[in-house]
Structures are given as structure tokens and as C-alpha cells.
Write a structure and sequence with these properties.
The protein has helices at 33-41, 57-65, 86-95, 116-128, 187-193, 217-229; strands spanning 7-12, 27-28, 31-32, 49-53, 103-106, 133-139, 148-150, 156-158, 176-186, 202-205. By secondary structure, the protein is of the alpha/beta class. It folds into two domains: 7-137 and 177-228, Spore Coat Polysaccharide Biosynthesis Protein SpsA, Chain A, CATH 3.90.550.10; 141-174, no CATH class.
Length: 234
């Protein structure tokens, strides 16, 4: 609880990963991938409950073994490839509706480098400023001013037109991208908008070294190196 508001922490981890089978419970530095998120979230001083939403009993068992609650099994229709990411979050809020949470925090298990300081910092920022929604972001690795579309004949067209292609990177406006680590939203607002990303959404900047999102096997190797560098591996 923070400022008298009850806050639900959710981790969405479906079982149907195709790029890396069993990704959410694959070993990373001696722990299942999702355990890194559970471990940091359990240290939060603001989350009133921490639940894992999954359709997979193996994932739910791992979640319980690392201290997260699994009060329900996610319905199959909310675990398809095309299921919007907000739907399992709204399902979790509705499933626990008698407790009337004011805010919900989504933490993706594929962001193992995020810390409790990031989680609680995002919650504080959102509630202190009375924002309806906040998501974590990091500075984009490639400026959109340096991106191009390519026509069938191979001709490159800039995505954002500018007078010269020789503009120094340091002279361009900073660009940011969502990093998938922390999403904070007021429950009633999220139920109405059904999206974390709207014209009202604010950003919470995180450093790139804690913003890695695991999508393929190479990412596991990179994240393990970063965990080791940060002194977080025993």
C-alpha cells in the first residue's frame, strides 16, 4: 500500500513461448527466468499482493516455489499468441475484485534485470503525481532519425525526414522506447482504456543496463553477463 492505495502486483507468464520453448522457467544464472522478477517484486514495500497469471501448471508451480501467489489459472482464451497483453492483467484484477485494488502493476518475466528500486520508484512516481498510468522506458539504442524504410527497388527512405543525413546524433532530440519492465496503472482507468499506452501515459526512465528484454537464446547469455557484472549472481 502507498498513500492509502491498495496495489496489486501481477506477473504474466503464459506457457506457449515459440521462440524459446519454456522461456519463462528456463535457467538464468541458477534461477528460472521468472524467479528474478518474483524475487525483486517480493521485496517491494508497496505491493499488497503478488500474483502470477499463467495457463501453464509448470509455470504456476515454479511461481509458488519462489513465493508468488497463484490464486487462479488463466483461461485458455487469454493465453493465445494474439491475446492483448492487457487482457490477463484485467482478468487478474477482476478475479481478485472483492479486495478492490486501486492500482495494478504489471512486471514482465522477460525483464530479469529490473530491480525493486525500479518497481517502487515507478509506483512512487505515478502515485505522487496522481498520474493514471506510467510505464518504464529507456533511451532508444537507435534514434528514429536514423531509421529507414526500403522500397522494392532497394531505395531507402527516411522514416523521419530531415534536411540532412549528416546531423550529429548528439544534436538530435532524445528518443525513448518502452522496455517492458514495469507498468503501473489505476485499475478503473485501465478497465476503461484497455491499454497501458495512451495519450495520458507517462514514462519512467530506466538505465539501459537494467532494461534488457529476453526474446531469444542470445539474450540469456547477455543478461547472465550483466547480472554477473552487477554482482547479483551468488
Amino acid at each position: 500500500m502507498y498513500k492509502g492505495k491498495r496495489i496489486l502486483g501481477t506477473i504474466s507468464a503464459r506457457g506457449g513461448s515459440k521462440g524459446v520453448p519454456g522461456k519463462n522457467i528456463r535457467d538464468l544464472g541458477g534461477l528460472p527466468l521468472m524467479a528474478w522478477t518474483i524475487r525483486e517484486a517480493r521485496c517491494s514495500v508497496y505491493l499488497d499482493r503478488l500474483v502470477v497469471s499463467s495457463d501453464d501448471e509448470g509455470i504456476l508451480a515454479v511461481a509458488r516455489s519462489h513465493g508468488a501467489e497463484t490464486p487462479f489459472v488463466r483461461p485458455p482464451e487469454l493465453a493465445r499468441d494474439d491475446t492483448p497483453g492487457v487482457d490477463p492483467v484485467l482478468h487478474a484484477v477482476a478475479a481478485l475484485a472483492p479486495e478492490a485494488f486501486d492500482y495494478v502493476v504489471l512486471m514482465q518475466p522477460t525483464s530479469p534485470l529490473r530491480t525493486v528500486a525500479d518497481i517502487d520508484g515507478a509506483i512512487q512516481r505515478c502515485l505522487d503525481r496522481d498520474w493514471p498510468c506510467l510505464i518504464s522506458i529507456t533511451e532508444a539504442s537507435i534514434s528514429p532519425y536514423f531509421t529507414f524504410s526500403v522500397a522494392e527497388d532497394g531505395l531507402m527512405e527516411p522514416v523521419i525526414r530531415q534536411e540532412s543525413f549528416h546531423t550529429r546524433r548528439q544534436s538530435l532530440p532524445k528518443a525513448f522506447e518502452p522496455n517492458g519492465a514495469v507498468y503501473v496503472a489505476r485499475c478503473d482507468w485501465l478497465a476503461k482504456t484497455r491499454s497501458f499506452l495512451t495519450a495520458e501515459t507517462r514514462g519512467f526512465e530506466m538505465p539501459r543496463e537494467r532494461s534488457w528484454d529476453i526474446d531469444e537464446l542470445l539474450d540469456f547469455e547477455i543478461c547472465e553477463l550483466l547480472l554477473k557484472k552487477a554482482g547479483r549472481l551468488s
